Amino acid sequence: MFCLSEMEDTVRVPPDLLNLPLEVAIKKVLQKLLLNKVLSIGLCVSIYDIKSAEGGFVLPGDGPATYKVRFIIVVFRPFVGEVIAARFKESDSNGLRLTLGFFEDIYVPAPLIPRPNRCEPDPYNRNQMRWVWIFEEQEYIIDDSCQINFRVENISYPPVPTEQAEDAKPFAPMVITGTIDDDGLGPVSWWEGCSERNNEDDDT
Amino acid sequence: IFIYVFFFFNSKSFPFFLFYESKHRCEYVCRVKANAGALTNFEVLDLLNSRGASKDTTRVIASETVSRSEYKVYDYLMETAASTQTRDSVTKFSDKCKGFKLAKAEILNIINLRPSSDVELTPILEKPDEREIDIEGILALVQELLPPLPTVEAHKENEQEETEDGEQPNMETSV
């Protein structure tokens, strides 16, 4: 889910950082600019390396030194079809929301939850709805008891809204849509001991 | 309630910023190579470790080289298979996978997830029925070359210690 991305840009190093070694100063500026921000290619997770920096000119009327920098960053961008381990965050009548800690905008919409299922008010949490999968007369609750594996269906970068209501959810610049409707997906506790059951069938 | 600030820069080489509560969007036009190589979770964890993420438990001294958001990635990766892997095991596994006719993305996914059963491996593969893939062979290779997942190891260690000392040591429960 991570990859390297090579970029080139003009970086302005403010005067208060110019006493540091150049590479450190440029890295600091890049970190402030890019770290934990969503670019068109994904979420920037780390500055990997600075390949080259040239220039260092101070433009008239401007304090910072301007460098043309080539650098590599580590980007979080899963591919469609990738299976990722995540944790449950919350759920409502539209579906589930999963989190990776550093990225929390993973949604599993209701049609991608295995059926038959039902959605009921969560007895432990008044504000939430709880999803339950019904299989062979057994009920499997989806909650935060264990890791949930999901498969990436789609990644979208919604356009930035120009206006937002006061109580609307914070804008998510990168949204991953996932599915848990397949063998081996969903909470890992659903599939534990499954291989043993399969072996028993083979023996008989 | 959130606060957002607009910044406009005259020079066209500056990015256009829009700040929101948590995640931000940055319109970058100067991109040379969008994909300069995929990384396994292990490699990213190794990178963070080389910057000192594992060494400072207070996370204050190392904050010069490892930022808060990078620590969040570190915490996530420490709970996955990457935390017990070594460069050697990952390279060897990736080499030996060549005989199984798997796509690079699938090999990467297997390394990241470390499936230990048929049902864990099949969602990773694309159209496994049409491709005649040696599922048993891949699982055997995973078992042989890739270290087990972190919680499994903690359980096994504790079981051994229990038989030796008769005491139950503190077990780290993964939440």
Automatic annotation (TrEMBL), chain A:
Q: Where in the cell is it found?
A: Nucleus
Specify the domain of life of the species encoding this protein: Eukaryota
> What residue intervals traverse the membrane?
none
RNA polymerase III subunit Rpc25 domain location: 82-191
Q: Does the keyword Lipoprotein apply?
A: no
| Domain RNA polymerase Rpb7-like N-terminal, residue spans | 8-63
Q: Check the record and name the SUPFAM superfamilies matching this protein.
A: N-terminal, heterodimerisation domain of RBP7 (RpoE), Nucleic acid-binding proteins
| Keywords, comma-separated and alphabetical | DNA-directed RNA polymerase, Nucleus, Transcription
- GO BP annotations listed: transcription initiation at RNA polymerase III promoter
Where this protein primarily resides, as one coarse class?
Answer: nucleus
Q: List, alphabetically, the InterPro entries matched.
A: NA-bd_OB-fold, RNA_pol_III_Rbc25, RNA_pol_Rpb7-like_N_sf, Rpb7-like, Rpb7-like_N
Question: GO cellular component annotations, sorted alphabetically?
Answer: RNA polymerase III complex
Under Gene3D superfamilies, the record lists: Nucleic acid-binding proteins (2.40.50.140), RNA polymerase Rpb7-like, N-terminal domain (3.30.1490.120)
Function comment: DNA-dependent RNA polymerase which catalyzes the transcription of DNA into RNA using the four ribonucleoside triphosphates as substrates.
The text of the family note is: Belongs to the eukaryotic RPB7/RPC8 RNA polymerase subunit family.
Q: Which PANTHER family match?
A: DNA-DIRECTED RNA POLYMERASE II, III, DNA-DIRECTED RNA POLYMERASE III SUBUNIT RPC8
Q: Any idea what this protein is called?
A: DNA-directed RNA polymerase subunit
TrEMBL record, chain B:
Q: Where is the RNA polymerase Rpb4/RPC9 core domain?
A: 31-152
Instruction: Classify the source by domain of life.
Output: Eukaryota
Q: Which segments of the protein form a coiled coil according to its record?
A: none
The record's annotation in Gene3D superfamilies points to:
1.20.1250.40
In the record, biological process GO terms are: transcription initiation at RNA polymerase III promoter
Q: Does the keyword Transcription apply?
A: yes
Against Pfam families, the record matches this protein to:
RNA_pol_Rpb4
Organism name: Brassica campestris (Field mustard)
- Where does the record place it? Nucleus
UniProtKB keywords:
DNA-directed RNA polymerase, Nucleus, Transcription
Q: Which GO terms describe its cellular component?
A: RNA polymerase III complex
- Where the protein is mainly located, per its record? nucleus
What is the protein name given in its UniProt record? DNA-directed RNA polymerase III subunit RPC9
Looking up InterPro entries in the UniProt record yields: HRDC-like_sf, RNA_pol_Rpb4/RPC9_core, Rpb4/RPC9, Rpb4/RPC9_sf, RPC9
Name the family the entry cites.
Belongs to the eukaryotic RPC9 RNA polymerase subunit family.
What PANTHER family does this protein map onto?
CALCITONIN GENE-RELATED PEPTIDE-RECEPTOR COMPONENT PROTEIN, DNA-DIRECTED RNA POLYMERASE III SUBUNIT RPC9
For the region Disordered, what residue ranges are annotated? 150-175
GO MF annotations in UniProt: nucleotide binding
